């Protein structure tokens, strides 16, 4: 690489630096016009222009940075003057050099840096426009700039998704449509903009589409005008409410239009032929509207609302300003039971995000949790109102269990990472293999958990300040925002529409007067959950309950809790709440009991809710008045509680505690007590119609488990059989099930679940009892839905699931090939049913093909258990594009499972090809996440599949193959992590000295096969990187550089220039490179010092360094010089190492040396993983 | 001749129909065959009279049939005329009217009857007219109540109008029915799917015997969501049926009642309809329903 190139590189770096720190402050977009005047479905291309009205807020604005990805930009004009521009997207290829490093640590930091380098939140962008010098003067006078950009998109891989079915007819007849999508701020994929949630502006949107199509977008449709040839229409939208670019969306297709009959300003769109479904699905949307408007005492902020249902949706629900895009698969007819609540939830979710997320946007990424939390919280209120308190509490428990499990597994979810301007050295989440600094580096699962936790924390705040205050806070935020939204930009009120953590907290303290600081500190600023272990003893003499609550706060994902905790004790005399203080060292808590004299009279026992019930107290311990104890019954701590109490206490809790959460806890606890008493308690609950149906469903599975544990002593018919017969079979002929009548949904769900649970029963031979199998087969045989007003597709699917559950491994007769002849007779019956079901699906498909899905699972289970030959070809055919997405996912799941069990590299390859080529983004994402959950091998296990080619392929996939889809890239990273871990994949041959880093890993130390002649690719790569290593992290306080004289006019189209830029991309890598290469081994203690210098610097500009291009060249020179040094040292080092190898006798010395290295390495690593690491690269030149 | 054939013309026809093709004959059939034979002789002699020397059997048959129909029609019509005038036995005038009505010139009849070359045919052999089989007497015939005149016909046999409830075991009936319905459906489904599998492409779960459990091959469709989301015609049909008819009660129906309440707790129904009724769609002002504007004539800017 020549010096000249270097120079350019550095130069741009400077430019970047100067832009970074002041983009946010030096310009503001106030209005943007987006005009797409041609959408070609055949070629899948889009042509249009945007015009941004920009308000410079500093004098002499000479560079404008905008976000733009994959758009081809034809020309840029600023106030009608042609403007030169450069385009650079470092995320296209994260690690540019063909380095053989292949370790994820390295990739992650490079990726984070790349994303950061174009992060619009920080004022960065891929597109850098040079303001023509004629206009500089204007900047002085603070005139607006109009930036006009013509662009086109050709076969976009992200941002816009074209669905073009391959059939006869014109595009409208074929149902071709296109819609925008993306994870977080991804609008830059389809038009240039400032792609940040915190940059608000008003919008004018114009879309010219075929006359048979409808273009749905944000804001009000002002008019629709034919083009002159009358073959096309132009839809003119105006969005007067300041909105961030990521909240802009578009959907174009031959949609059927349904104006909501209750609210005429709401319009629904669906694909052709689905209108009847749309009508039914949307018939209750107005209730959700009314609910939110009522609780928030605030009108829906936009003047209209649109819902669009599209095929191949990226996510089920995505919300944009005044419109939402849903998956078409949410539509259902009135005959479908199971989908109804799911769809209603999705609608409610979308609508809650309209208020918080679209109308009120976030100030920065670290404030995301507030918006997700609030929208999740009001969505929860809707659930409570619509589906009832039981459902709500059940959902909260589910969410809590999920987040607890995730945090304990991965080490914590941090809601509000404090980056402190990038100065903080420590990675706030060292346990994760990705950075949480940007939304685009997060793994999808983490983000889902993040939202879940945000909502739960919001609920904790509600517990603290009451719902009334909570709603007042929301109302206040909304009314401030709506006042601001009607103001002109110049009034500087728009920031009221952005929500930040501090603003939210201030609002809370203003409204409620309460200090929720500790709560925020515990759950928001800190990651981890609390893990309690509780046990108790009853002291008869003192009539005191001695409760011991211990905590585990050392294992990963946990934190220590100090503060109040509520304990509810149900005694004979009633239920009593106690608030205990969890303190540093107190484990034991004495709780006085009330019931001194007991059961002298037959008295009813009062419950928490005031109800008084008769109980059979014979099971109780005669000395103790305690019926049951609950710790933190209101779930006001994010915790996991493992509480020990006697089985009879759990049984009482199950029978008599009215809270569904308590009942569910009792059920899971009873699994450990397989006794007749538990059986009775569960059966009673199962029969009790007043009991919440989900509790009853859970009881089914628990009963099956208990029955299996009690196998030898079990009397009577198989568990649940007589119960099912009594509930659902004909009185006169108990072997025949009644004809279906699903009008009572509770019994419907129970009817579906019981066979599935029963099929889990096993006899002494560990087989499913013949009686049970025949029973299920009879259910299938006599199933009669002719008189039912609901579809039985889910019921039939679950009956197939029941068959699947009944399968047990085949008796393996010396590995013989599975043939039809040696098929077990029971299995033959099962297989016959499955075959018939699957074939009938072809003729009469069920809703969402639920039956096919179940059949595929069943077939895979048959294969896995060795009843039929294991063969993925059937699944592969069902996984093809063109099947319904649920079927595809089920088939792919089977292929993934096959890949793991049979260690098939062919299938793995097939899956990975699909990840790269499938038209559906959802399916691609799903494959990788399924592979991640059910990996063919892991970092802990050896496998023949683990080879260099696979490493290369996956590396390529995440490095450059997935640059169009943030989510997919993160999935790829996850999968890579699952397979190979954070460090160098073990299957790669050890590189020459790359193991300096690997010393951290014991493996490398144990295996120091150093090949002296291996022509250090890694080493060279590293050198290169360091050589390029420049300045890339924003350094606040630098004056904007005016002097760069690079001729941007000449380069805006040149490949070469992009190449330079790609070189720049290595800067990110360098951050890591420092850690991995020996540079720091020598200058180990330097960086902190440098950093200090730097920190003190901002006030004083560095004229010598910045102003003179030659100075930077000089600096660069130093870099290189420095490097040479290191190269030498490295060599020396290597030598030494080798030397030592030869002389085994110097073992002690060697160990010491290694230890030292390891220490250094650790230092270096800790340092590099900090956000500020890039800065250290400067150290040599500066200190020089 | 006419007189003898008249009362039995209905029997004649039915007898002929039932008797044809049978080798063994009952006395009643014999009776009709004899008459038919006579008719054939009549036809043959008439033919001879007209100068035919021979005739094909089929032609004779046809003519016989025609003459028989003609005579039958005359009889039927004559009977109608007679009944029309409230009599029960036809008279000559009835026959005459009938013949006139049928377009026959009655005046020529006496001359024709007295023609010289007519052949005289021997009367058919006397056979016993068939015995009307006694109807099975079931129960006692009811006698007329006093207010019904005795000339009115007797009551028919009681079994023809009295409802006789029969009792079968309903339990077993239901079970059998369900059993039958289930196996019938299963058979139909199996046959249909087998047929589809045989006629189309298949996939197999076994490598050794690809016919064992044939699966209709999965075929991707261009718009997969349509089939998956839209209810099938069968389901729509069912829906219509259940809308019109009540859920069947079967023998036990206790899982239906409280249903409506419980439904509310899981999925609330439509809720209160607001003041604006959906029917007033004509006044809806929605930008997507507005007509598309014509492009403006381009003005010079």
Automatic annotation (TrEMBL), chain A:
It comes from the Eukaryota. Coiled coil: none annotated. Residues 1-21 form the signal peptide. Residues 1115-1143 have a biased composition (Basic residues). Residues 1144-1165 have a biased composition (Basic and acidic residues). InterPro entries: Aminopeptidase_N-like_N_sf, ARM-type_fold, Ig-like_TAF2, Peptidase_M4/M1_CTD_sf, TAF2, TPR_TAF2_C. Residues 1167-1184 have a biased composition (Polar residues). GO terms for molecular function: chromatin binding; RNA polymerase II general transcription initiation factor activity; transcription cis-regulatory region binding. It is found in: Nucleus. GO terms for cellular component: transcription factor TFIID complex. Its main location: nucleus. The keyword Transcription applies. GO terms for biological process: RNA polymerase II preinitiation complex assembly. Residues 647-1005 form the Transcription initiation factor TFIID subunit 2 TPR repeats domain. SUPFAM superfamilies: ARM repeat, Leukotriene A4 hydrolase N-terminal domain, Metalloproteases ('zincins'), catalytic domain. Keywords: Nucleus, Signal, Transcription, Transcription regulation. Residues 527-645 form the Transcription initiation factor TFIID subunit 2 Ig-like domain. Residues 1104-1184 are annotated as: Disordered. Belongs to the TAF2 family. This is Transcription initiation factor TFIID subunit 2. It comes from Scleropages formosus. The gene is TAF2.
TrEMBL record, chain B:
Residues 240-301 are annotated as: Disordered. GO terms for cellular component: cytoplasm; transcription factor TFIID complex. InterPro entries: BTP, Histone-fold, TAF8, TFIID_su8_C. It is found in: Cytoplasm; Nucleus. CDD domains: HFD_TAF8 (cd22918), TAF8 (cd08049). Keywords: Cytoplasm, Developmental protein, Differentiation, Nucleus, Transcription, Transcription regulation. Residues 31-108 form the Bromodomain associated domain. GO terms for molecular function: protein heterodimerization activity. It comes from the Eukaryota. Pfam families: Bromo_TP, TAF8_C. Residues 240-252 have a biased composition (Acidic residues). Belongs to the TAF8 family. This is Transcription initiation factor TFIID subunit 8.
């Amino acid at each position: 690489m020549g010096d000249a190139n270097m120079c350019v590189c550095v130069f741009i770096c400077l430019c970047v630096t100067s832009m970074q720190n002041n983009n946010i402050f030096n310009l503001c977009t106030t209005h943007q016009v987006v005009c797409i005047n041609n959408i070609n479905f055949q070629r899948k291309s889009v042509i249009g222009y945007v015009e941004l009205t920009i308000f410079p807020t500093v004098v002499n604005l000479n560079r404008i940075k905008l976000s733009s990805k994959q758009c081809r930009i034809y020309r840029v004009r600023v106030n009608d003057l042609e403007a030169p521009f450069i385009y650079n997207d470092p995320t296209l290829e994260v690690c540019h050099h063909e380095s053989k490093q292949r370790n994820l640590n390295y990739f992650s930091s490079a990726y984070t840096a790349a994303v950061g380098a174009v992060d619009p939140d920080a004022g960065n962008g891929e597109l850098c426009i040079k303001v023509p010098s004629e206009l500089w003067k204007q900047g002085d006078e603070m005139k607006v700039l109009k930036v006009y950009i013509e662009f086109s998109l050709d076969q976009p891989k992200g941002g816009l998704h074209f669905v073009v079915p391959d059939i006869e007819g014109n595009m409208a007849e074929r149902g071709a449509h296109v819609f925008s999508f993306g994870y977080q701020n991804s609008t830059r994929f389809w038009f240039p903009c400032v792609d940040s949630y915190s940059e608000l502006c008003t919008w004018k949107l114009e879309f010219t589409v075929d006359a048979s199509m409808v273009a749905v977008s944000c804001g009000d449709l002002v008019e629709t005008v034919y083009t002159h040839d009358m073959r096309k229409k132009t839809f003119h939208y105006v969005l007067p409410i300041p909105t961030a670019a990521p909240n802009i969306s578009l959907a174009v297709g031959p949609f059927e239009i349904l104006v909501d009959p209750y609210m005429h300003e709401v319009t629904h769109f669906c694909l052709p032929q689905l209108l009847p479904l749309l009508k039914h699905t949307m018939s209750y949307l107005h209730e959700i509207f009314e609910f939110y408007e009522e609780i928030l005492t605030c009108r829906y902020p936009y003047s209209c609302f649109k819902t669009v249902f599209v095929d191949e949706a990226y996510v089920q629900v995505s919300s944009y300003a005044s419109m939402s895009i849903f998956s078409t698969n949410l539509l259902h007819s009135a005959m479908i039971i199971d989908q109804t609540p799911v769809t209603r939830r999705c609608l409610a979710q979308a609508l809650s995000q309209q208020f918080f997320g679209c109308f009120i946007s976030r100030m920065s990424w670290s404030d995301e949790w507030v918006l997700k939390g609030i929208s999740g919280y009001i969505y929860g209120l809707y659930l409570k109102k619509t589906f009832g308190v039981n459902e709500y509490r059940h959902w909260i428990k589910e969410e809590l269990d999920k987040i607890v499990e995730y945090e304990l597994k991965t080490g914590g979810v941090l809601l509000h990472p404090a980056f402190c301007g990038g100065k903080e050295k420590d990675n706030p989440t060292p346990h994760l293999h990705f950075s949480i600094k940007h939304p685009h580096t997060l793994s999808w699962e983490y983000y889902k958990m993040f939202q879940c936790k945000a909502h739960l924390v919001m609920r904790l705040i509600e517990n603290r300040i009451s719902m009334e205050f909570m709603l007042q806070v929301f109302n206040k935020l909304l009314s401030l925002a709506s006042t601001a939204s009607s103001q002109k930009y110049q009034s500087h009120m728009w920031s009221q529409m952005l929500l930040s953590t501090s603003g939210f907290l201030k609002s809370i303290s203003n409204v409620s007067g309460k200090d929720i600081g500790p709560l925020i500190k515990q759950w928001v600023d800190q990651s981890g959950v609390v893990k309690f272990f509780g046990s108790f003893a009853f002291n008869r003499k003192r009539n005191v309950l001695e409760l011991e609550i211990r905590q585990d706060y050392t294992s990963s994902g946990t934190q220590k809790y100090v503060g109040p905790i509520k304990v509810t004790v149900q005694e004979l005399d009633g239920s009593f709440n106690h608030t205990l203080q969890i303190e540093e060292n107190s484990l034991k808590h004495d709780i006085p009991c009330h019931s001194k004299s007991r059961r002298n009279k037959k008295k009813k026992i009062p419950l928490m809710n005031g109800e008084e019930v008769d109980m059979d107290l014979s099971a109780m311990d005669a000395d103790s008045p305690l019926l049951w104890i609950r710790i933190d019954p209101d779930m006001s701590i994010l915790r996991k509680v493992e509480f020990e109490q006697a089985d009879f206490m759990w049984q009482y809790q199950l029978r008599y505690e009215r809270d569904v959460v308590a009942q569910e806890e009792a059920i899971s606890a009873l699994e450990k007590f397989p006794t007749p008493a538990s059986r009775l308690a569960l059966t009673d609950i199962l029969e009790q119609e007043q009991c919440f149906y989900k509790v009853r469903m859970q009881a089914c599975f628990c009963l099956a488990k208990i029955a299996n544990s009690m196998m030898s002593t079990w009397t009577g018919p198989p568990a649940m059989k007589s119960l099912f017969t009594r509930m659902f079979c004909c009185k006169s002929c108990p072997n025949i099930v009644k004809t279906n009548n699903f009008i009572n949904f509770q019994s419907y769900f129970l009817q579906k679940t019981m066979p599935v649970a029963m099929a889990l029963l096993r006899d002494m031979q560990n087989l499913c009892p013949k009686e049970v199998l025949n029973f299920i087969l009879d259910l299938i045989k006599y199933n009669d839905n002719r008189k039912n007003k609901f579809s039985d597709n889910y019921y039939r699917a679950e009956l197939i699931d029941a068959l699947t559950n009944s399968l047990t491994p085949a008796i393996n007769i010396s590995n013989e090939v599975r043939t039809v002849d040696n098929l077990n007779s029971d299995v033959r019956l099962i297989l016959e049913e499955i075959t018939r079901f699957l074939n009938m699906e072809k003729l009469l498909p069920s809703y969402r093909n639920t039956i096919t899905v179940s059949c595929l699972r069943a077939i895979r289970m048959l294969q896995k258990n060795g009843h039929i030959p294991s063969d993925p070809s059937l699944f592969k055919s069902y996984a093809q594009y063109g099947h319904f997405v649920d079927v595809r996912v089920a088939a792919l799941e089977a292929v993934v499972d096959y890949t793991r069990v049979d260690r098939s590299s062919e299938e793995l390859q097939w899956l990975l090809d699909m990840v790269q080529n499938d038209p559906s983004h959802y399916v691609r994402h799903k494959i990788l996440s399924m592979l991640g959950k059910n990996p063919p091998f892991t970092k802990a296990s050896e496998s023949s599949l683990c080879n260099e080619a696979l490493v290369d392929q996956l590396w390529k996939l995440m490095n450059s193959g997935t640059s169009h889809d943030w989510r997919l890239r993160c999935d790829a990273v996850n999968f890579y992590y699952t397979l190979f871990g954070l460090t160098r994949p073990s299957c790669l041959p050890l590189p020459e000295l790359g193991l300096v880093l690997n010393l951290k890993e014991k493996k490398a130390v144990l295996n120091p096969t150093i090949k002296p002649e291996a022509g250090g690719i890694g080493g060279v790569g590293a050198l290169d990187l360091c050589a390029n290593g420049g300045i890339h992290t924003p350094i606040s306080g630098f004056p904007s550089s005016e002097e760069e004289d690079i001729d941007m006019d000449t380069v805006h189209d040149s490949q070469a220039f992009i190449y330079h830029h790609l070189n720049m991309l290595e800067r990110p890598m360098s951050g890591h490179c420092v850690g991995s290469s020996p540079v720091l081994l020598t200058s180990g203690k330097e960086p902190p010092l440098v950093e200090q210098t730097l920190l003190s610097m901002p006030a004083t500009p560095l004229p010598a360094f910045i102003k003179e291009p030659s100075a930077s060249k000089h600096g660069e020179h130093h870099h290189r010089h420095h490097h040479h040094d290191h190269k030498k040292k490295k060599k020396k080092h290597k030598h030494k190492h080798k030397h030592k190898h030869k002389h085994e006798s110097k073992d002690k010395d060697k160990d010491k040396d290694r230890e030292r290295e390891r220490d250094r390495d650790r230092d270096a690593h800790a340092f590099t993983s900090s956000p500020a690491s890039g800065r250290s690269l400067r150290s040599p030149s500066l200190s020089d | 001749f006419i007189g003898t054939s008249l009362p039995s013309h209905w029997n004649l026809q039915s007898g002929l129909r039932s008797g044809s093709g049978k080798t063994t004959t009952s006395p009643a059939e014999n009776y009709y065959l004899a008459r038919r034979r006579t008719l054939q002789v009549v036809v043959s002699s008439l033919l001879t009279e007209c100068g035919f020397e021979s005739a094909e059997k089929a032609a004779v048959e046809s003519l016989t049939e025609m003459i028989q129909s003609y005579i039958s029609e005359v009889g039927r019509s004559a009977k109608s005329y007679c009944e029309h005038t409230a009599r029960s036995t036809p008279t000559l005038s009835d026959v005459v009217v009938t013949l006139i009505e049928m377009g026959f010139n009655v005046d020529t009849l006496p001359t024709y009857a007295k023609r010289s070359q007519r052949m005289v045919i021997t009367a058919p052999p006397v056979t016993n007219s068939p015995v009307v089989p006694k109807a099975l007497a079931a129960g006692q015939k009811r006698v007329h109540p006093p207010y019904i005149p005795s000339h009115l016909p007797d009551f028919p046999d009681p079994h023809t109008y009295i409802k006789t409830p029969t009792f079968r075991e309903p339990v077993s009936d239901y079970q059998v029915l369900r059993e039958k319905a289930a196996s019938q459906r299963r058979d139909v489904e199996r046959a249909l799917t087998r047929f589809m599998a045989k006629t189309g492409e298949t996939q197999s779960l076994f490598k050794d015997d690809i016919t064992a459990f044939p699966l209709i091959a999965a075929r991707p469709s261009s718009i997969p969501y349509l089939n998956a989301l839209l209810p099938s015609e069968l389901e729509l049909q069912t829906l219509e049926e259940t809308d019109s008819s009540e859920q069947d009660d079967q023998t036990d129906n206790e899982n239906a009642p409280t249903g409506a309440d419980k439904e509310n707790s899981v999925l609330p129904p439509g809720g209160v309809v607001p003041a604006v009724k959906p029917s007033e769609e004509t006044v809806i002002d929605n930008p997507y329903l507005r007509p598309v504007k014509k492009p403006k004539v381009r003005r010079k800017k």
